Amino acid sequence: MTSVRHTCIYSPCKVQLFRTYFKHNQIYSAARGSVHINMNALFSSAAILFRNSKRSLLYGSMAVLTIGLEELIESVVFNCPCEGHFAYGLAFLWAPALLLFLAGILVDRDLWKLSRISNKEKTQTPAYRYVKTLLATLHVFIRAGIAPVAWLVLSFLQQQYYTCAYFGPLLTSDVTESNTTDKCHFKLGSRSRELEESYKTYSQIVGWSLMLIAVSVLFASVCIRRCIRKAKHLTIPSLEYYRHVEAKEALAHFHATAKEIAKRTLNRA
Q1: Which tens digits make up the pLDDT trace of 45-81?
Q2: Which of 165, 161, 163 is nearest to 84 (CA)?
Q3: How far is 248 from 269, CA to CA, in rounded Å?
């Protein structure tokens, strides 16, 4: 009975099973390692992409927030009155744009670096430093104006604020010159469907024109900034740099050789 158990334990089939188990275990470990490496590479690529496009993502998020804010204000807060509609409409049209512009300037980190330009480039002429500071300031203003321009373009294209300022509340579908169903029925003689449509048309024209101007200014600023930016040429190190590197390597080799000789001397002793 003991010989049978001994044969069963150390039989070739058992050995083959153990080999197969360890082989699959090694394959599984290697697969887990490769998956871990691939995930690390994926996260690294995503981090690099986010870092390189961080500013573009910021501008995109600002535009999306502006669109959401405009829709919220128009649907919840805005209610064009009959009296004082001119100031009311212009306030909703320009006040949020001004607030967004000031907020964009405050959160721009490059604005606070303009004072360092004169300190870093004292060897340059004053005219060069002034021009560079002016261009950097204009670039800051252009970046800060993305959200306000988006607000104005949306506001003009949706026609509500401009029409409220220059026409008043919109006419209902059943308004005629002989009834008083209009909100501003006491001004019904100066309010007509044709005049309302003309103000809506003007609002859309202003919106598309503003969008065209904004895109043109942004395109021109990017082109000018790319053209005047100095190219980063590859600079060849001087001879002194190579001598320093060579001396450092020689010193490290000398220390390693001295340690080996000292170890051999101690072992012989």
Answers
A1: 555 555 555 666 666 677 777 777 777 777 777 888 8
A2: 165
A3: 32
58 sits in which H/E element: helix 54-72
Give the up-direction half-sphere exposure of residue 200: CA atoms within 13 A in the CB hemisphere: 11
Q: How distant, in Å, are the alpha carbons of 147, 150, 207, 226, 229 from that of 214?
A: 11, 9, 11, 18, 22
pLDDT digits (tens, 9 = 90+) for 86-117: 899 899 889 989 988 988 888 877 777 766 66
Torsion of CA 132, 134, 138, 143, to 10 degrees: 50
Q: Which of 211, 54, 228 is nearest to 145 (CA)?
A: 211
Q: Any residues with CB less than 8 A from the CB of 170 and at least 6 apart, and which?
A: 80, 163, 164, 196
CB 111 within 8 A of CB 105: yes
